[in-house]
Write a sequence for this structure.
């Protein structure tokens, strides 16, 4: 299959492109650095020519809705208008339906734009990646003190496994319209305190003291209520555990 990966040089997209090549597909990662700009549509028609599937991993949270919402819509419309039918596979996030955070609202708006486009689309929702859960744990730890906001926890997932699941969707028959694949999540739920303790041990430090905090409002409240975690039995689980992922990271974690 000819598989185009938008955002194909990013964290997730590069793994999708690599996995597609390993499976013997003709994989093409694309982004602004190859001349595709989803905020303008530049390069879109050329990129989709001859494609069977496009896996959309493009993202730029600093540009508001320009890439995630308008860019996804533009991509779906171009896929729909392509000479030969193209299956658009799009990555989204578990639990975004009623989540008061602007990024998650844009993810939901992107899904709605794709559903309205009339294109053959499959949306796969995943939980937060291990790297992002580790970032949250580090951010909520200050001066040896870990702030456990409400019941805040993650069911973090291995990005390589997410990439493989996207490829499985890409290889499945093209749907006739919009559909959602089963949500996916990592193998275990870990509180912020558990994640932070693991990250500190990994860096050679003793776990910090845990300070419980009420989750006041907004996004923290939603995380505190675990809206980011699928209800029991509502997601397919798999991939490396957080501990196994962590063991393969450098001692000093960086980024998200
Ligand atoms: N991190 C998580 O925990 C998590 C969980 C579930 C789902 N996801 C989803 O996974 C997706 C990928 O995230 P990521 O962390 O892999 O992103 P990333 O590393 O920031 O990569 C984003 C990619 O998008 C490209 N891009 C940015 N602006 C563009 C534009 N205007 N036109 C075309 N391409 C553009 C970038 O390349 P250039 O700069 O070269 O254009 C880059 O290749 C996102 O949709 C995110 O919501 C993430």
């Amino acid at each position: 299959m000819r598989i185009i990966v938008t955002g194909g040089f990013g964290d997730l997209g590069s793994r999708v492109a690599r996995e597609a090549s390993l499976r013997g597909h003709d994989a093409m990662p694309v982004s602004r650095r190859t001349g595709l700009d989803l905020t303008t549509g530049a390069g879109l028609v050329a990129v989709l020519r001859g494609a069977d599937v496009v896996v959309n991993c493009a993202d730029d949270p600093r540009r508001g809705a320009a890439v995630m919402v308008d860019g996804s819509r533009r991509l779906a419309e171009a896929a729909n208008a392509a000479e030969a039918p193209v299956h658009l596979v799009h990555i989204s996030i578990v639990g975004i339906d009623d989540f008061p955070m602007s990024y998650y609202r844009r993810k939901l708006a992107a899904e709605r734009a794709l559903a309205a486009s009339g294109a053959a689309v499959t949306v796969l929702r995943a939980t937060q990646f291990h790297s992002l859960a580790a970032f949250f744990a580090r951010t909520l730890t200050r001066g040896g003190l870990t702030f456990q906001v409400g019941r805040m926890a993650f069911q973090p997932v291995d990005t390589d496994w997410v990439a493989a699941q996207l490829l499985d969707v890409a290889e499945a028959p093209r749907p006739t319209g919009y559909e959602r694949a089963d949500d996916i999540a990592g193998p275990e739920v870990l509180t912020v305190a558990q994640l932070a303790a693991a990250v500190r041990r990994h860096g050679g430090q003793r776990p910090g003291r845990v300070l419980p905090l009420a989750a006041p409002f907004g996004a923290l409240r939603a995380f505190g209520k675990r809206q980011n975690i699928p209800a029991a039995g509502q997601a397919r689980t798999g991939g490396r555990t957080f501990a196994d992922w962590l063991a393969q990271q450098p001692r000093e974690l960086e980024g998200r």
Remarks:
- The chain has nine helices and 13 strands.
- The chain has one domain: 2-247.
- The first strand starts at residue 2 and ends at 6.
